[in-house]
Queue: 3 jobs
Job 1
Amino acid sequence: MFSYAALTGYCWIVFLLVWFVSAFTAKKSVRNTRLQRSLAIRYLIVAIFIFIYFRFYAGEHVLNGVGHYGSTTSGPFILTFGLILCAAGIALAIWARVYLGRNWGMPMTQREHPELVTTGPYAYIRHPIYAGVILAAIGSTITIDVLWFIPLLIYCAYFFYSAPIEERHMAERFPNEYPAYKSRTKMLIPFVL
C-alpha cells in the first residue's frame, strides 16, 4: 500500500541522517559552546520525537489510513502536492548544507575561520536551510496531519528570531562583503521575502 505519510517520514529521516553525519565535519566553534550544547540537546529531543512519531504513531495509523487528516480526507493530488513540498524543502536544506560545508553550525553559533558562502542556494536566499525546513513542515502538514502546523509555527518563530542575529554576526565578520550580499538576496523566498 502506497503511503504519502510514510514517504514524508522518510524525507525527514534522510534530513536527520544528513544533519547528524555532517555535524562531525563542521569547524570548531569560537563561542556559545553552552548555547550549542543546549541546542544540540533540543535537536536530539526533536529528532527522537520525530522518530517515535513515525515509528509508532505513523506506522500504526497512517499506513492503515486511520485517524489522520492527510490520509483520510485529502485526495491524491493534494497528498502528492504535500509530499512534493516536503521533499523539495528537505532537498533545499540539504543542498544548502552541502554548500555551507564545514562552515555550518547550530543556529546563532560562530565558527573559527568562517567563510561567506554566496553560491548555490545562497546566491538567491540568505537562509535556505530555514526556508527548506519551513517548506518541508508545510508539506508534512498537508500530507500527514494538521497537527504538523504546531511545529511549523515553532520553526517559523525560531527562524525569524535567529535569522537577524545570525545576519548581525555575519555583518560583523564580513563588514565589506555582507551588506552587498544582503542587498542582492532575500531572506527566505527568492525575489519576495
Note: The two ends are 39 Å apart (CA to CA).
Job 2
Amino acid sequence: MDPTLIVVLAVLGVLVLAAIMMYNSLVSKRVETQNAYSQIDVQLKRRYDLIPNLVETVKGYASHEKETLERVIQARNAAMNAQGVAEKSAAENQLTGTLKTLFALSEAYPDLKANENFKSLQEELSATENRIGFSRQHYNDVVGQYNTALQRFPANIVGGMFGFRPAEFFQLDPAEAAAVRQAPKVKF
C-alpha cells in the first residue's frame, strides 16, 4: 500500500473522529440546556400550585381587593400558558410583580399578616422564588456554555452542518434589569 494513501486515510480518520466527538459534545450540552430549562419548569409549577392557595387565604381578609387578586390570577394563567424562553421570561416577570402587590396587601391587613396559613404560604412561596432564581441562574450558565461551545471553531462548522442553534437566555424585564443595575441610594 502506498504510504501517502495511508497518511491521507489516517488524517481523514482523525478528522472524522474529531467531528464525531464535537457532535457528541454539542448534543450533551444541548441536552443539559434542555434539562436545566425543565428544572425551571418544575419550580414554576410549584409556584403555580401555591398561588391559588395564597389568593384564597387573602380573599378571606381582603375581599374588597378583588382587582389585585384578579391580576395575580391573570398573571399566573399567562405565565402557565407562555411558550418559549422569551415569552415565559416576560410572563414570569409580570407574575413576580403582581405577587409583590399581593404581599404588600399583608401590610395593610394586620389580621392577614398574623394568619398562620398566610405566613406559611408566604414562606413557601419565598423559598420557591429562591429555587426559581437558582434554576434560572443554572440554566443561563448552561446556555452560556452551550452557546460558547457552539461558536468555537471548528465546532461551529459541525454544529452548523447538523442544525444546532444557540439557546436563549432567561432574562429580566428590561425595566427591572435597569433598576437592578443602578447602584442603591443610601440616605441617613
Note: The chain has one domain: 22-181.
Job 3
Amino acid sequence: MKQETLLQYIGGRSCAILGLGVSHLPLARQLTELGISLTVHDKKSPEELGDAALSLAEAGVAFVTGDGYLNAIEGEVIFRSPGIRPDLGGIPAAIQAGAELTSEIELFLRLTEAETFAVTGSDGKTTSTTLTGKFLEAEAKRRGFGNVLVGGNIGAPLLDRLEQTDRTSRAVMELSSFQLMTLSDAPHHVAITNISPNHLDWHHGMEEYIKAKTHIVGTRTQRIVTNADNPETVALAKGWIGQTEERPPLILFSSTKHSYKEIYADGSALGDCAVYEKDGFICFDNGSCAIPLLEISHIRVPGRHNVENFMTAIALTFGCVDPSVYTTVADEFTGVEHRLELVLTRNGVDYFNSSIDSSPTRTAAALSALHGRGIVAICGGYDKKIPFAPLADALCRSVRAVVLTGATAEKIKDAILACPAYREGNPQIKECPDFEEAVRCASSLAKIGECVLLSPACASFDAFKNFAERGERFRSIVNTL
C-alpha cells in the first residue's frame, strides 16, 4: 500500500477494525506501522486469532473481544468486515457521533488510480470476474500496459496491493451484497449477473438484498451490464432506462433473445447496447450494427450459464480490449476451482466438485450443464433461510438420486417430497449427516456412465470454513475411495 496516501487519507484520526479477517490483517499492519491509533474489535481473543494478532497486540494495538465486542466503538474511521451488518451493536451510535464507516474494498476504490471493473450477482459472479480479469490480462500482455489486479470477494485483498496500481492499471473485483451494503465509491464498469433469493439469513428480506446489489452503481460508473433474462435485473434495467437524468450506458445480455429489438422491446436510450447469441456467435449490438465477437464452440466450460458468464465479461470489457482476446481466453479457460471441476473418473463414474454452488439457482445451472447424464447429487449445508422449492424441482427433473447432508438436509427432503414433479423413488433420496459418509454413499449409488456431483445449493458454514475447504475435502475423499 502507498503509505503516504493512506496516511494522508486517515489524517491523524483514530481507527477501529471490526473483524480481523484476511482482508483486514494487511490493513492493520499498515496502520500500526504508520503509528495510527488502532483498536481491533473481534469476538475472538488475540490468542484465538493467532500469531498475527498477537504481533499486533505486542505492537500496541488495542483489542476488544468477547460477546460484547461491538458494544462500544470509539474509532473515528471504522473499517467493517463484510460479514458484520452496519446496524449492529455500537456502529450506528459511532456514525451518529461523526465516525466514518468504510471498508477495505471501499478504501481501495477511493484511493486507487486504476480503472475499475466490478461484478456482483447471486450466481456467476466468480466466473464472470475471473473471465473479465483474463480478458484484461490478455490485452495487457498484447499491448504492454500496466498491471491487472483481481480481488475483492475472491483472491488476495486489493488494498494491500494499492502500490501496484497507477493510471495504466486495471482492477477487477467480485463484490458481495455484504460488501456493497455501505459502498459509496462505485467502480467504473459494473455488472449485475442476476438476482435470486440468497443470504436471507443475513439480509432483512429481498428488498434490502436487491438494494445492496444496486450500490455497485454510482456517480463514477461509466457502464452498467445486466441480465435481460432475469426478472429482478430486468426490473432494475427498466428503472435505469426510464431515468430522465444523465446515466451511464446500459448493456443488456441475453442467452434466450437473439436481437437488439427483442432485448429492448420496451425501449432503450441512446448509447444502450446488447449482447446476445446469433448464428453460433456471441454478438455485440449498439442498436444499428451487430458485431460477432466469439464463436460459442470455443467455450470449453459446459453449460448455458457459462455462455452467460462469457457474455457478462465481454459486455464489461468491450472497447477496453481487442476482440481477438475473447477467443484467445476461451480456447484456454477450463473454469474456476470448485465450479463443475472434474476431480477424476473412476470405475466409469465421473466425480464433479461444484462446491461453490451455494444457492439453488447455482445447483440448477450445474445440473443443466450435465443434462443427459445419470446424476447422483450431493446437496445440503448451512441454512441461509432461502426457499428450496426451486432446488427440489431441478432435482426431481434432473437427477436419479440425491444424497442430503448438513443442516438443511431435512428441509431439502421436505421440499422434494412436496414438489409436483416428484414421483416415489424418483429421485432416490438418502440422508447422511456426515459429509464423508455422504460422498461414499453417493459413490455407491452411481452406476457406470453416470456422475457424482457435489453441488450443495447451500453455504458451507455448518461444517466448513468456506466452500473451498468443502471442495478440497470432497476431492480428498474421492481420491481415497
Note: The CA atoms of residues 41 and 64 lie 5 Å apart.
